[in-house]
Amino acid sequence: MHPADESPVIQWTKGDETFSARWQSERNLAVPGKVMLADDTLTADMAYRLACEGTVFLWQSDFQNARQLMQALVRRVDKNAEHKKSKAAKSGKADVEYPQRFHLYRQGQAQRARILGSILIPFNADYSIPLRRAPDVLAACSEAWGEPQVDGPMIVTSLREMMGVVGAYEWRKKGVEVSALGDPPNNRIHPYYGVFSPVRGEYVDLVLKAPMPKACEVNGSAVDVGTGTGVLAAVLAQRWLSNIVATDNDPRALECAQFNIQNLGMVKQVTVVQADLFPESKADLIVCNPPWLPGKPTSPIERAIYDENSGMLKAFLAGLAAHLNKGGEGWLILSDLAEHLKLRTREELLGWIELAGLKVLARIDAKPKHGKAFDASDALFDARCKEVTSLWRLAAV
Asked: Which residue ranges in the chain fall short of pLDDT 50?
């Protein structure tokens, strides 16, 4: 997945000279306009003030000092957020209702990301970093961005994004233990950079526990729509199904799912296919875990969280009946967090199900186990603590 030759270019000046480099941003951020060369003489207070005004800093000295500066920015951003929260509480303006409260939360997160992304790191074309005490990130960058172009241009990306690349590389090597796949060590899913990791186990466990449709006893055919890492297809294979198709439209996800299925020894049971939702064939069971929140994603990784206008959810429901064998079921795995955030109502969801010519056979619920559901300091805690993840068993009318 190499960046295209027409990748955007970032420019900066040093003395009377103008320099340029390829701008690398997985979040599809616009090329920064106000680029300032920075080194160890830049104080954290000055950096924070300038970053709030839109300036970014192309780092020129010790790499580890750049990391310390970013940590200092984190403290200032969080302190300012707490100050605003306290001020709003004192003025009586803190009780903003959903969904406006959620939109303000996203705005705050975007502002935080912009400030923390203001420290830029230069790379040579071979992915080496021309700074003192810089780490070797060749392997991590090659997996995320493709093999280096030895004769290519210099590259610039944010330190924060580079750390995300390195973190994803470590996650991929280590893998995520999925209890639904059995006992260690053969129960790990290895997420690729840019592919959502199955760190929330409750939705995976629902697929493990739900009763199989009787139709599956004949052909054992199933489809995992939007497979991502391939984890749900793997769970279905673990449950004895032998004819599973895992679909996705994202090249990284397809490569990731193929690796995991092969690594788990399930290639005879699972076929990974590039498709927009459904494959051409019908199946006895079709499983889909669409993004849970209606909203516009701001980066590729957010496409696993935000489904603009509930487009994927509605398309899955609309096409489900036509792709099911007689007596087959569709399993929709969906959190109700959107309902608590006032982004979608239960009535809307039930209306889309009915409009698609489907009926609800049953629903299996699970409470979340992740930390934010129990963290009272989280900005959305009052919604997260009520969240329920459900597996809706659907059939054609």
From this structure: 1-4
**Model pTM?**
0.92
Asked whether the beta carbons of 159 and 120 are under 8 A apart, the reply is: yes
CA distance readout (Å), 338 to 335, 344, 365, 370, 374: 7, 6, 16, 17, 18
Give the tens place of pLDDT for each residue, 188-228.
Answer: 999 999 999 998 889 999 999 999 999 998 888 999 999 99
Cα–Cα nearest to 22, from 36, 37, 12, 7: 7
The tens digit of pLDDT for each residue in 142-168 reads 999 999 988 889 999 999 999 999 999
Query: Could you tell me the domains of the chain?
Result: 9-171 (no CATH), 178-396 (3.40.50.150)
Backbone angles phi, psi at 358, to 5 degrees: -120, 160
